[in-house]
# Entry
Amino acid sequence: MNKIKVSVPGKLMLFGEHAVVYNRPCIVTAVNQRMTVTAELTAQNTLTIQAPDVSIANLTIDYDANEADLPKGARFIFSAVKNFCNQTDWKSGLIISTHSEFSNEFGFGSSSAVTVGVVKALSELSGANLDNHALFKIAYQSVLDVQKVGSGFDLAAAIWGGTLYFVTGGKEIKPLLNNLSLVVGYTGIKANTVAMIQQVASAHHTALQKIDQIFDKIEQIVTLAKTELIQGNWLKLGALMNENQAVLAALGVNTPVLKNLISAALSSGALGAKLSGAGGGDCMIALATAETASAVAAGIEAAGGKVLSVSLNAAGVRIEE
Ligand code: MEV
# Structure
C-alpha cells in the first residue's frame, strides 16, 4: 500500500472545558462533520502538504525544517509526521492532503482532527497498525510540541468517536452511550484557544484558591452530567448546562455575543445552554426537545447566530480508501 485516505470527526465539548486542563474530567462528543487526510508515499525525502482549507496549495518541506518557521496550517501536520517517524523509527517521503467539511473557524477541532488523521494514515501506511492509545500518545505529543498547552480531549474524540468522559492527558477515556441531540449556534467569531487557556492560567496564577474552587465546581457538574446524560434525563442535564455556563462566566471566558445567543436559546424554550470550548467566541450549544428544537434554532438565528447542522456521537477516525 502506498496511498491511504482516512477521515476524522470534529468535536464539541459538552461539559468541563478549562477545568480539564487542570487535571479534571470533561465530556466531549464527536460530530458528523469530518476532515479527510490522504497520505501518499514518495521517493523524495521531503514532505509536501496540500491543505486548501488553510490556504496551503502545495508546500514542500525538508524534514529538518524548523516547525516554528512554517505557516500555521502546516505545523500540526509537520509535527505529527515527525513525531510518528521518531517514535516508530520509520521514514518516507510523503504527500499529505487534507480537506475539511467544517470551517476551521467553528472550534470543531480542525488542528486535532488533522493531527489524528496524519498519525492514523502513517500508522496504516507504515504497517505499524497502532492501537487507539498509541495513536493518542503520538498525536498528543505533536499538539503539545506546536501549541504547548491543551488537555488532549479533542484528540480523544477524534480517535475514539462517540461521547467520552475524558481526564487530562488521557488519564481516563471512557465511552458514554447516549442519544443526546443539540442545537449548535456559531457566534461568527473564531476563538483563539491558546490565548483563552493563557488567560485562565494567569487568573489561576493570581487567584489560585478562587479558580481552583471554580474547577472543583466544574468537576462536580461533569460527574453529575455523566449520569444524567447516560440516563437521558434531559431536564436535569439542561440545568447542569446552565450551571456550567454560570461557572464559565465567573471564570471570565464568556462574551457578550455568546451570552446573547445563550439567552435567546433559553427564552425560546431550551432546557439548558452553554458555550462550548474555550469561550471567547466559537459555538454555543443548547439542549432542546424534539418539539422545541426548531423554535430554539430560530431564536438563535434571530439573535444573530448561525445554526450549524450537526449530529453527535459520530464515528472516530476511520479508513476511507
Ligand atoms: C478548548 O476547546 C477546551 C479547553 O479545555 C482546552 C483543552 O482542554 O485543551 C479550554
Observations:
- The two ends are 11 Å apart (CA to CA).
- The chain has a mean pLDDT of 97.
- The longest strand covers residues 25-42.
- The chain has nine helices and twelve strands.
